[in-house]
Amino acid sequence: MASEEGVQERLDSFVKVISSAMKVNVASIYLRAGDDLELCATKGLKKTAVHTTRLSLNEGLVGNVARRAKLLNTAEASEHPDFVFKEGIGEERFHSFLGVPLLRGGRNLGVLVVQGKRARVYSEAEVEHLLTAATLLAEIAVEDERAGGAEARLKGIRLTPTGAETITGRAFADGLAQGRAVLHLPPVTAGHMISTNTGEEQARLSKAIRKMRRSVDAMVDGEMGSMSSASKEIFESYRMFAYDRQWLDRLHEAVHSGLTAEAAVERVRNEHRARMLKARDPYLRARLHDLEDLANRMLRSLGGENLEAGQRQLPDNAIVFARNLGPAEILDYDRDKLTGIVLEEGAATAHATIICRTLGIPLVGLAERVLDRVEADDEVLVDGEIGEVGIRPTSEDVSEFLVRVGIRAQLDLAFEKQRNLKAVTKDGQKISLLLNAGLLVDLPGLDGVGADGIGLFRTEFQFMVSQSMPRLDEQVDLYKRALEAAGDRPVTFRTLDLGGDKILPYADPVPEENPAIGWRAIRIGLERPGMLRYQLRALLQAGAGRHLRIMFPMVAVVSEFQAARTLLDREIARIKKLGSDLPNKLEVGVMLETPALAWQIDAICKHADFVSVGANDLMQFFFAADRDNPRVAGLYDGLHPAALSLLAHIANRCKANKTEVTVCGEIAGKPLEAICLTALGFKNLSMPVTGIGPVKSAILALDTGKLAALLKPEISSASDADSLRQTVRKFCEKEGVPV
Ligand code: PEP
Ligand code: MG
Question: Which residues contact 273 (CB under 8 A, 6 or more apart)?
């Protein structure tokens, strides 16, 4: 049958090769067809049984293998408790049975079986051989199916996930994207599975294992001193896996059986994944998760041909799928092609999320088990407005989506019309809407949305996307370009805020149990002043003859600010001595990101020219809720009465000290939160590029006096509300404020 040739031919020839290579009487392939297993190819059983024999997952030895995703090796099949006799296949003459699951990406595609007339248990070498064959078969059959399209498929059976699926996650970065799926860690392709030199592959594998162990040792040893006993246990068990003999033996055996090191890691990872998805016990799931993590580390260190995420060929509209991504990993991708991101994990104020917002890339996170349901190159719709992902959408899904894209384009047009309007409330408050930026690609956004300047320039982004520490001239060049793009509008440069989840690819990681409240930002700058001084020098050079604004991140006590300011003064003195030009106006500010500094405002205002509220960090420390941890994301609400009361206190104290204050956390870019900040008295809001249009629309329709009157009694410490979100929303409905 011409229409079924691709995969069927492959299966038929596969069973022939297996039966002769392993010298067995029977070799058969059963594939998943819905909830059943269908006999799809055989050498040795009756041909008439092919495509007519089906077993449920609870039926027989084949069902047993599929259900448990584990091999079964028995000398006398009929004596096994799960054995069932199936009429019409001609199995009755056979005794020995060896079945292995066909695993790919943690999905179980079916079962590969060999049987023999003689009652015997298959040897370890034979088991290995069949496992290797199964790894290959799963990969090749899927590739055949994908390459051949509809023509190549088996009737009623798809090896790759089929049909439209909608997965609900959380909307982390706004926007709509249509494109093709790219897996951040793609499965090893069949072309790179079989080794031509087993000795060489063993050596590569051993090297990768050593490297993985070293990194695990460094991580665990580095953390031990400061850890609670529960954490110690977890880390020790992680290390235990890295040294687990069984796991390592499985890897070596797989290479010995003819696989490349990458394919061996992939095979063992698939086996664990399949089991992990079944495990109910959270502890066990977490441990298997560790193993997968170790496998990923090894795949990365093996650096197989198709594993360098950033350097792969991408389709024009790439939607990247991953369990999680760090900010630097996102920046590694070709930005002209990256149109959307879907993560199984992720968090609303993680830096990766901020990067997506800055770049205008829609991001849906917390999309549960999405990696098991998507295949590379699937068509995908990413809805960063409501947090949904459509995989292999129907044509109706696509049409509906395109209608929404059209509506969004109209909205953008409406924002565009407001571009040259100043953001002034109905009762005459002028609000300055500034941009959060950090890279060259952000700069066109200034004019694109009509921003009043750059309120937060995250200088560490340049350090994160570079392969090595940016040289002085490279830093100067970027800062100059930012100043030039802004013209006479202000630009506020934040000095390096490294640490936490912002890790430099070229620096040795410093393991810490609580990196967000550990050695980061100004703390690193003051303890290792070389890098900070170098950066201050670059900023002063770039700002020569211009207005320059610099601020220091994560200041907790006033003396930190003073120490940083002293470093800056030294750099100024150096430039003066050299007779070079200085900025014609220099303002030095502080980021208010620690609750402690909110209680030192009168003191800090004596030293700092301005204050910028880093609400992302401030809120995580205020609510003791990790900004990167999805589990506690619900606690973290800028419209909680306590949060608003803290923010009101900051606005009031800065006003009393006549010190300029800006809010530059993500809340400034959300219309509902932004109007509340305005009502509390904040006149400067700095936000991602996508926030400016919607926030301006809301501000133009706002009467701050009315909202302030509504909020005032609600934000007293007597309030027991979890959030004022609904109250403010109702106000907006009544007042016609678009949020
Ligand atoms: C913040 O914490 O609000 C902030 C603006 O800094 P970052 O998000 O870069 O930590
Ligand atoms: Mg911060």
Answer: 103, 105, 106, 288, 292
